[in-house]
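Supplementary Methods. Inverse-folding protocol.

Structures were first reduced to a discrete structure-token string of length 194. This string, shown here, constituted the complete conditioning input.
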């Protein structure tokens, strides 16, 4: 019994050590004045990033892209030009998307908890489109295919945590197609050339 407990303790310590060794990106939005907020993120793995601020209709109000891979970023953002309402601060870093809801009112800035989504993996070969996606929101996932901006076909992939599908595209004509995977207000795009 003591050996079993010792092995379980060692295994638990190994899992905890591994989790701390692989630090995931983290983003903070911290009010510093009535009309300003510090937006900061850090990670162990350098990668290019894109920072977006969107309104509740999904329109992009601010965008900043890095010129080279970075491990951390900090900026004080002036919120004066934003009206009272709900907004989303989004950070795309590598294959990870981080988001925080913010609410601006005359009296203060409220910051919601961080949500994390991972970009899907796509591969196209031998007329098969292979898609793998970690659906951590467990919302319905849809895959739509467009050609020249016109809808061609679509499929509901489900709402399981781990989605792995292979779609046969052999019946589509030769050309360039835009594949869009949608889930929980996130759209991921991929170009397929037949």
């Amino acid at each position: 019994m003591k050996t079993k407990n010792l092995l379980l303790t060692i295994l638990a310590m190994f899992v905890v050590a591994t989790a701390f060794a692989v630090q995931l990106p983290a983003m903070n939005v911290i009010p510093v004045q009535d009309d300003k907020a510090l937006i900061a993120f850090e990670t162990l793995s350098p990668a290019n990033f894109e920072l977006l601020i969107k309104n509740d209709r999904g329109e992009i109000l601010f965008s900043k892209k890095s010129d080279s891979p970075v491990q951390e970023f900090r900026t004080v953002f002036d919120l004066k030009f934003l009206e009272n309402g709900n907004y989303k601060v989004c950070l795309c870093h590598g294959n990870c998307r981080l988001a925080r809801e913010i609410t601006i009112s005359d009296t203060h800035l409220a910051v919601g908890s961080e949500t994390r989504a991972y970009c899907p993996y796509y591969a196209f070969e031998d007329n098969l489109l292979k898609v793998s996606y970690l659906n951590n929101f467990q919302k319905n996932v849809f895959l739509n295919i467009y050609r020249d901006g016109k809808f061609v076909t679509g499929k509901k992939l489900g709402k399981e945590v781990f989605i792995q599908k292979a779609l046969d595209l052999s019946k589509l004509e030769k050309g360039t197609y835009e594949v869009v995977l949608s889930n929980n207000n996130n759209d991921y795009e991929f170009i397929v050339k037949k």
